[in-house]
Design a protein that fits this description.
The complex is a heterotetramer of chains A (about 425), B (about 425), C (about 280) and D (about 300). Chain C contains 12 helices and 10 strands. With about 280 residues, chain C is α/β, with parallel strands linked by helices. Chain C folds into 2 domains: about 230 residues, Rossmann fold; about 40 residues, no CATH class. In chain C, strand 9 and strand 10 form a beta hairpin. Chain C starts with a strand and ends with a helix. Chain D has about 300 residues and is mainly alpha-helical. Chain D has one domain. Classes of the chains: A alpha/beta (about 425), B mainly alpha (about 425), C alpha/beta (about 280), D mainly alpha (about 300). At the A-B interface, helix 1, helix 2, helix 3 and helix 4 of A face helix 1, helix 2, helix 7, helix 11 and strand 2 of B.
Chain lengths: ~425, ~425, ~280, ~300
Amino acid sequence: MWLSLIGIAALLLVLVVACGDDEEGEETPTGTPAAAETPTGDKTPTVAGPDEGITDTEIILGAHFALSGTMGAAYAPVLDGVRSYFKYVNAEEGGVCGREIVYKVEDDQYLPSGAVEAVAKLLERDHIFAMIAGLGTAAHAAVWDDLNEKGIPDLWIMSGAHMWAADPEAHPWSVAILPDYYVEGTIIGKYISENYAGKKVGFFGQNDEFGEDELAGLKNGLDPEKNEIVSEQTYEPTDVSVRSQVINLKNSGAEVVHGACIPPGCAQLIKESDRLGWHPQFFIGYVNADAMMFDYASPELMEGVITLQGNKMADWTDDPVIAEHHRIMDEYGNMPAGNFTVEGQLVGELTVEALRATCDNLTRQGLMDAVHTIFDDYQGDIGIPGILIDLSEDDHYGVEQMKLLIAGIDENGKGTWEYFGDIINFREQ
Amino acid sequence: MRLSSPLLLRILGFAFLAFFLIYWLPFSHALPDGLPMRFGTYRTIQASIACVWVLVALGLNILTGYNGQISLGHTAFVATGGYTAAILMADHGWPFWAVLIPAAVVSGALGLAVGIPALRLSGPYLAMATMALALAAPQVLKKYDGLTHGTQGISVRGDWSTAPGFIGDMVTQDQWSYFVALFLAVVMTLIAWNVIRGRVGRAFVAIRDSEVAAASMGINVPRYKTIAFAISAIFAGIAGAAYVQIVGYIAPESFNVLRSINFLTTIVVGGLASILGSILGAISFKMVDDISDFLPLGEGPMAEQVPWALYGGLLIVVVTIMPYGMAGAIRRFQMWLAFRKPSERRVALGGPALGIVAAIAVSELAGGSLGIIVGLVVALAITYSLWLPALVRGATRGYGRWVGALRGSRGPPGFVTSEDASDERSDAER
Amino acid sequence: MLAVRDVIAAYGPIVALHGISLEVQEGSIVTVLGANGAGKSSTLRAISGLLRPKEGAIEFEGRRIDRMSAEEIVALGISHVPEGRQLFSELTVLENLRLGAYSRFARAHGDGRRVHREDLSPLGRLRHDLFHAATGGIRDAAREIGQYRRRRRDFEAALNQVFEHFPILAERRKQMSGTLSGGEQQMLAIARGLMANPRLLLLDEPSMGLAPMVTQEIFRIIETINRTQGMTILLVEQNASLALDIAHRGYVLETGRIVLADTSENLQKDEAVRRSYLGY
Amino acid sequence: MDELLQQVAAGLATGSIYGLLALALVLIYRSTTVINFAQGEMAMFTTFVAWTMLHWGTYWLVFILILLMAGGLGALIERVVIRPVEGAPTLNVIIVTLGLFAIFSNVATIVWGGQPQAFSHYPINDETVKLGAVVLSVHDLAIMLFAALIMIGLYVFFQYTPLGLAMRATAQNATASRLMGIRVGRMLTLGWALSASVGAVAGMFVAPIVLLQPPMMLAVLLYAFAAAVLGGLDSPFGAVVGGLIIGVTESLVGTYTPKEWLGPEMALTVTVFIIILVLVIRPTGIFGKRVLRRV
């Protein structure tokens, strides 16, 4: 028995060694103790010390991200886009405010508990200044209260759930970047009622908050006089086949279908309906606005499918910004350029812009103030002209404007996404 | 009373453990500057979650290790306990201490309900049936969202979960959660101990070894098998409540089937039918997260995959060279020790104990991680000089098995088993 | 034909055989007598390769077999009918018999071409191991297919011969072997052993758990097989009087050692044997 | 009626995928009584290799090469990592397969990245066949054909060939098998090799449907496990039938149960509970052998 105890003790000692870098952190002069190190940090939400995460040479930023686990690796390109852009800024623009950007990313395996651990590690060990692009709805939901209580800027949340920016007063430190799924559903609903009045609508959605928000939005956007939802089908992201759902959609007589699905699911939706010889008008969520879709389902099948996006497409290599993005990814990145890496660069650019505006007052509050002030109808390089980002104290939605995209085929038989119609403002929905 | 050296060591061990768990681990920031404290919030949270896994592993080990019933559905029980706790706390304003009993009861009731059909199943059939629970749990939680808040999840923050009164002024929320989890882990370990040592535990083991023989001894086999499920689920339910207290949020995605399967890995690696094994398995499983800290992997997008690939390899090696888990390896070492001369034994045990004390002392005096490393090196040097022959023998033995297996059909499976088993048994008899 | 010399064998730390020596002449029935746990079964296991001797030598027709695997030994012509019969209870009688004949065909491709791993250089061994790992199953399969026709003919012949000895098995050929009576199971076990067309048959307690009438029937058949086919038989038995009746020679084992060795007539007359094993 | 037929056909098409991988699981279970949790990941891995090879080879050539390579991989795995734990408790072997799971899924992500890939160059995909109201693609028919062929092939192999008989014998009684001259180790290796090959077929057919990505076989594996258990773990026939039952059940539950409290969201849940119900009535699956218990 006592031997067992010593065994446990020895094991725990390994833990001691495992956190060797804690001391390194403590040895680095970090100025005044920060909120994370205040004993009663939970009782009174103290504003962070000005220097936490900022040294003479570095600005330390962090993120929790699903890097391993079953679903994780699919989103890695976003992260690689952010990271490559920061590397590029450090190497070619001399960093920000005379400091290098250090971007620390901790794996959360897409789990809430993993995110809690990851954030604790980032705050305490890496002494991050701000959270940039934390990924995943459930994972981020477990940590954002904590970040807000501690006063850590929680910028560009990588999830389109409705809640992030719904109440900026309750969560003043959290800023969303991805368009709201609910709003997306609304926009598509309105578009359907305007252009496909009288047609029956089918809904195909992932069985989680993504599908749920989109469906609620769709119902909100559809004009009940003009269109009726005849079938609501859900699928699990892990489903092997969605044919059963597609048959039900077809049999319901739907003529227009909105798919709240991620690329593999959407590709199946489109392929299966083709097999059934059924070709309704498809709308799919903006996560699918990527050239990869033409690989997943052929350009011929994709033709006419409508989605939304606000960024320049990764295959517009004639555009100087995208050409530059390809160069950045080639030189600093580990992954090929795609729309996910473009999104990553957008996040990187916004971060750098905000930090530049904060140089005189490099504090967390200062960063938030900058975020609230400089992004006033801001036109970024990445967004297509007219797509403006607007943030303020009481508006924490990042990208709120998008344009419709329709899939077409170019003269080489390759699939392309073409923007059409007016810019749609999410805020007005 | 004369203090014999093993007793002294035992007291020292307990004292160290208590010091480590109660003072060293959580209180890094609550104390004045200058004291060399090693741990902070991150380790505290990690340790808290390790406590939760310890709770689950204890329960699963009672079911699988002691009663021989396999379960791949324990996340369903954890989720049941967690959701019961979260709903009562967030929607009905119950304090944490009050939700423990309902969490245990609801989860235990589900365990009972599962235990009855499980009576007819065994082996992979039972594994499948229980896995079905883990598969179904997220769907059920999402579908009936009136109670469970559906895909939104439940956020549990506020007065229900914070420390009462004056304690709240002394510790942070994370530390408080840790003490709660630690307390639960300790209490439930003692309860598990009692269950196993008692009449019920003996019945479990008898049923595992032979249902027919157990029945002929007058043991009500169906009753005890169902009880095992219920007890196991109670442990998982309490773990779920502790999880909610620590993470402050629960959602259908909080647990998945893979996590369920990992629980099984935990207890096999730790040691089946061993309380110590459950604890070791859960802690070491938590430590896998730290593999990446030790490896110079850089920042490549795939850097995170390397540790998990290594983890897979490690799993294979550990299970191969330690067929009875970490607890079994320790037992083996104890056997080995029993045949040493007393002087050697003292060094072999005193070495690590001394090293640990030295490590604490040096680090307190000198500060920094240097002290701990020096202390550990001393301890390891003294100890390994004695363990070395045994280690080498163990390692080559493992290698021999590998070579023998590679060679082809020389090592007949049936026979290697019985030979090895008898080897193992005779070790135990000594 | 078979010579066992000073064999020491152990299960882990428990030594079962403390230096056994015995000989079996071609065409004879030799019996090994002894109480439970004397090491009778272990002796047979050592011969058939299931228990590897720690020391000593076992020779079969002048060739060392104590380092060979069980599969190689059965291919040489030693068939072991194990204690407790060890039938494939969920297979039919016929399938059990087919399995009994399995080794005949393993033998066909002979030892001549087989490379002995131990003879190779370390590098050669590694290559050999890897090659086996990669191709073993495929080669076996190819061989099976190649020799199908001849196998079939040989098998039919062996089957007819076995059914002559055990006509009841012919009736029950489609039945699951687990559903046979104890005596029939024992017959099947022996028949399965015979299907390998062995030169030496090792029988481990054929009388175990059987009614006296059945036992006598089985012993009668054993004797017939020996007489008509000239089959060499090494018989381990607790029922000493029956065994000595049919055997030419006998050994008496006690706690892993041979304490007596003589012809069966002499053993039947021996005072100690009569007292301990024959009961009169 | 048409709707019912369509749903049943959809369920059969999906179910035969489960059945295919379930066949692979059954092959290993029969010889070692172990559920190989790495089965799906091995299939995923070989499919990625096939995808790489497709850049320079024709589909059917690659298909055959991959079957052979998968067989080699299975044999190698059995020899190198499974054999050393041969005599250990079953749970240990299962943990080893979980270790393999982690290795394959993470190595595949490292080598090929986590992004889904289109499994193109695929010759039997787009055509459809109409049977009344039911539409099936050539791909579906190919899966069903392969599932049936492999099932029948395995049945013939186990029932009528000496090697198959030897494998069955090995699974029942290893010691007695050695006494028959069967190289037990080789039978186990062969079992793993066959199983990996069958798994590879499943992988090749799943990839065009769900896109080629490291987690693609995870759900298939769980369904296949359920299918194998439902059919009875030692029966190849049961594996395929189990897969079909699960596929059809899921389709029908998603379509015909009341949307308010069940519906497609609960299809998986209802299906697994039906499986549990079947198991409670027949504890070793529909076609599984009753275990004879001796004291």
